[in-house]
Write a structure and sequence with these properties.
The chain is of the alpha+beta class and about 220 residues long. The protein has a 9-stranded mixed β-sheet, sandwiched between helices. Helix 1 packs across helix 3. The N and C termini lie far apart (about 45 Å).
Length: about 220
Amino acid sequence: MSRPQQPAGMAGQPDGKHPGWPARLGTLRVRAGDVALRPVRLRDGGPWRRIRVRDRDYLQRWEPSAPGTWQERHSGLSWTTQWAGLRTLARRGACLPFAITVNGVFAGQVTIGNIVRASLQSAWIGYWVDSELASKGVATAAVALAVDHAFSDAALHRLEATVRPDNAASLRVLTKHGFREEGLFERYLYVDGAWRDHVCFALTAEETGSGLVARLIDRGGAERV
């Protein structure tokens, strides 16, 4: 099925070619410290590799499988390739790849990916955080910052997220922010040695009201710094 072209001047149509990038977002204070988002950098490779090699058991249960061993996929060269790819996609307007920092230190990533413009104005959101900062408000704050940016400066209308049904931590982050469950994708992604079901969640700009950051602050889950 082909998608209709977007009429000129349609509400929500971005003014610039690639709106919302680059950008620095935050800061929000949570239990773990001061959370902010910035573009990923080449020099993030060191902390990225240290965290992900250490957190293999914590992360590989939820992330799509890829060729090579975990060590091979988290070498210095692997980060260089990944960073270059993300930078290229960002420059093309296809994604918004952010590093999550806590007190100025690299602590994970949140990415708005597969951006589609025209009549759809849609993308997916994905994220991971250092296990030592789990359950301390970091992912919740990072997602709030990224979603608000996606629906404002980046001029998107809809975000989707797919999560394994047993990923309780990620489910809490999404439902806390009002993402709606839209259905089950059976055998959707090859993860940790098998084809895994994923639940699809979605959120549109109209559903966020004054914004996810404002909601989070009102609930006492963060303070603006």
